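Q: I'm writing up a methods section and want to include an example of the input and output format. Could you take the sequence below and give the corresponding predicted structure tokens, formatted cleanly so I can copy it straight into the document?
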Amino acid sequence: MSKKNLIVNLAASHVSISAFRTDGAKLILEQFYTEDLTPALGDEEWINAATSAVARLASSKNIKGTATIIVPSFLLLQKALKVAQVESARQAQIIAFEAQNNIPYPLNEVVWDSQIMSTDGVEAEVLLFALRTDQAGRIANAIAQTGIRPQVIQAAPILDVQAQQFVSGGIAEDEEVLFINVGARTTGLSFISAKGTSIQAANLGGNLLTQGISDNTGQPVINAESLKVGFFTHVIQLPETDPQFAILEANKQSFNRRLSQDINRRLISIKRLGRRPTKIVITGRSSQVPGLSQQLSEALALPVEEFNPLGVISLSSQINAEYVMQHIHQLSEVIGEASRLLSPTALGVNLIPRDIAGQISFESQKIKFVVAALLLAIAPVPILLTLNAGVDYNKEQTKTLKKKSDELINYQNTIKQTREDSLAVLAVNQQ
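A: Here is the clean output for your methods example:
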């Protein structure tokens, strides 16, 4: 039977709604819609903007149903832990203890979950995620009002790993991939090998380039973002004599250099732990800054490939392939979550508050309860109708029987009278 998955991706610079289904072992993209967000918003402003964008998409495209919500890394507290490899119940207690010590908030103010990333039989590497309860609640409740019912709140960083493993068909024993997702506010780094995975987040993203352009041109951030996107996608053509041309080029080079230096520093640290990536796979809209892939390849001495999931998913006939291609660098987390349809044991966490999940589930069942109550209320009616029909039927039968009885009595009286008349005639004849 075909399985389906509705996914709402809340990214720093955009939101998207996707619907997938399976056809045997194939993953099919049935719906995909996206809307950009204003750059450089604070966390609370971003939540309002993101959930409002979801509401507009859900309303205009008539999208409803149970969904997974993906939240970005800048909202999350992310912490790598090492815990003893013991039986699962005892390990869960250890992780809970470590969570209490490593989350800088009271545990009743956050929703947290964990995922075991690797183990050597002695120690397990665990990735801990936490999301403030008030933020999780605002996101879940706002989206629930659109007719989309959040069932899971998933952490975006862990989905890049799942996406790469799904698209590549698995990681070879002698291979280690450095998966880089360059977002607007953060850059996710996933070191993926057959032995396990390590995930880090750098607080560098495309907004850094936008802010530099804004500072150096004196333009508002929103105008600087438009100039950045237009110039680097060649929609806006500037002559080299234009002062803005030199500013854009200088800020581009500064961004590429700073990001590659940060990644190289992290790469040196991870190599000390015995991990040696053999190639880079890159994605994210900010990965398209001209010269970034070349800068990374030269600085890290590794080949760079672009993440392309279209080789392992199919597009339904209702999907605009050109539209999907325009947004291909925004699909990694979505593909990672969608692959769960074919791999139920895939990596993941759930950061939705339990009380809100229960409330949303109850609200979705209300209509069923109302229908059940109505059915229960009208259940005696057919019985009464049947009984009334039975009474009417019996009355009719009684009338019919009485009529037949009267006819038989008359017939019997006629026979009796005829017999008496015959006997009288016989007596006269015998005289």
